[in-house]
Amino acid sequence: MFNPVVTVSLLMVKAIRWERAIHTIFAQLFASIFASLVVSGILPGPLLVVTKLDPDMSIARGLFLEMFLTAQLVLIILMLPASSNKPMYIGLTLFVAEICGVYFTGGSLNPARSFGPAVVAGFTSYQWIYWLGPLLGAGLGGAVFSLFDFLKIDR
């Protein structure tokens, strides 16, 4: 669990307790800042991994793209049973989501991934979409999973 929205979605479906979720989210954010500082210290020049919107992309479209791509990722994570193939399916899902989103929003899908570089390199005025979009996506993915679970739709 390196993604706060995955942690939130696991909390939503009662897969983890809220105390563990809070500690995990703080650890994820701290690790993101620390990793960004390490990369900034090792590589010359400015930190080029800051997520930013394409100039032709509106903030609303960026927000909804982040939301839907994150919802897709969260739903796949929650729907897959524990098996040795689960990491491959999650990786492929993340790959497809990144292909769809990287040119428009930077393909964050992860508030910690956007937060660490923003702390080190400077915040953009629309950093909030990298929090709100994925959190809404976690809610959407968790709600769809709960609906499937309620309707007894097989995984």
TrEMBL record:
GO cellular component: a single term: plasma membrane
Family to which the UniProt record says this protein belongs: Belongs to the MIP/aquaporin (TC 1.A.8) family.
Record bears the keyword Thylakoid: no
Recorded topology in the membrane: Multi-pass membrane protein
Main location: membrane
Source taxon at top rank: Eukaryota
Example of a GO MF term: water channel activity
Subcellular location: Membrane
Keywords: Membrane, Transmembrane, Transmembrane helix, Transport
Protein name according to UniProt: Aquaporin-like protein
Lineage: Eukaryota, Fungi, Dikarya, Ascomycota, Pezizomycotina
Pfam families: MIP
